[in-house]
Amino acid sequence: MKISSGGIRVLLSAQKTMNKQGSMVIRNATEEVKEIFEVTGFSDILTIE
Fold it and tell me: How many domains does the structure of the chain reveal?
């Protein structure tokens, strides 16, 4: 499974909203998606388990 730039934008928007209200965790992401988060630097912003 891959993730598009639109999908990343949605996750970042949701993360921003959740930072004000609680927390958000990305779970069960494929290794390919985790690698995309790492390469783009989003792994520093998102909580990924």
Answer: 1
Residue 49 falls within a domain, yes or no? no
Residue carrying the six token digits 């930072």: 19
> Which residues form the domain of 11?
5-44
Global pTM?
A: 0.74
What pLDDT is attached to residue 38? 93
CA proximity to 26, closest of 1, 3, 49, 2: 49
**pLDDT recorded at residue 14:** 93
